[in-house]
């Protein structure tokens, strides 16, 4: 998939490379005409054609080193050649790298989708050329009728191909898949979700069970019958004490 996307991206960024070559040709022509107008005795720069070929050789790094001594004889030719090298080496090449990097980062995400479409086209064209017997054997080798196993003991649906990946690729802190034990028959009712009220009710029953005194069943019954009366008497005593305090203040 990545190789196919890379090939498609290379085809799409050819426009950026074409712009770079066009700018390079423009600079070579401009500096070649400038050098041809200068008065010098360098045979490699005599005329626009020879000057352009010499500048192109300098860009490609195939210009003979001993001929640079001839360029040093004319200060103006040397200044023009140095300016050309600065523009090409420090500006155009870095600009090309930046353009290719930006274009690649923007196109790569879309190119993955185009690569999948291209692969699907190849698969469809291959299916048309294969025979029925070969196609049936290929379907049997896929085992699409077998149910997939998500985790150990967690059997899912059929009609797919399971593939494993490292757990660090797509980390999940909360499992969004709600699993229920039991049969997967469609005739079985859907399990009811546990609400917060049920949790509070269960917690209240647990607290009452812990607070219940241990002993005979008679003691437990007396505790249960005295609990409401003790709560009411406590409320009355608190009311009485508050009223007595108000009278004493008066």
UniProtKB/TrEMBL annotation:
Protein name: Polycystin cation channel PKD1/PKD2 domain-containing protein
Low complexity bias locations: 231-243
Keyword field contains Translocase: no
The organism of origin for this protein: Effrenium voratum
Biased amino acid composition, Basic residues: 212-221
Regions that span the bilayer: 6-33, 45-63, 75-97
Source taxon at top rank: Eukaryota
Sorted UniProt keywords: Membrane, Transmembrane, Transmembrane helix
């Amino acid at each position: 998939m990545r190789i196919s996307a890379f090939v498609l991206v290379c085809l799409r960024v050819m426009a950026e490379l074409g712009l770079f070559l066009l700018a390079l040709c423009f600079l070579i022509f401009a500096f070649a005409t400038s050098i041809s107008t200068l008065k010098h005795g360098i045979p490699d720069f005599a005329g626009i054609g020879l000057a352009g070929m010499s500048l192109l050789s300098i860009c490609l790094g195939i210009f003979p080193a001993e001929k640079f001594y001839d360029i040093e004889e004319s200060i103006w030719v040397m200044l023009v050649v140095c300016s050309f090298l600065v523009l090409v080496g420090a500006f155009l090449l870095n600009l090309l790298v930046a353009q290719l990097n930006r274009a690649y980062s923007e196109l790569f995400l879309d190119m993955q989708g185009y690569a999948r479409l291209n692969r699907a086209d190849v698969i469809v064209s291959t299916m048309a050329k294969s025979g029925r017997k070969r196609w049936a054997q290929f379907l049997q080798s896929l085992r699409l009728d077998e149910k997939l196993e998500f985790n150990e003991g967690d059997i899912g649906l059929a009609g797919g191909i399971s593939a494993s990946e490292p757990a660090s690729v797509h980390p999940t802190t909360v499992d969004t898949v709600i699993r229920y034990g039991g049969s997967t028959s469609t005739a079985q009712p859907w399990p009811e979700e546990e609400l917060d009220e049920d949790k509070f009710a269960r917690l209240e029953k647990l607290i009452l069970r812990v607070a219940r005194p241990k002993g005979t069943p008679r003691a437990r019954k007396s505790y249960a019958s005295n609990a409401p009366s003790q709560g009411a008497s406590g409320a009355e005593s608190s009311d009485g004490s508050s009223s007595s305090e108000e009278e004493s203040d008066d």
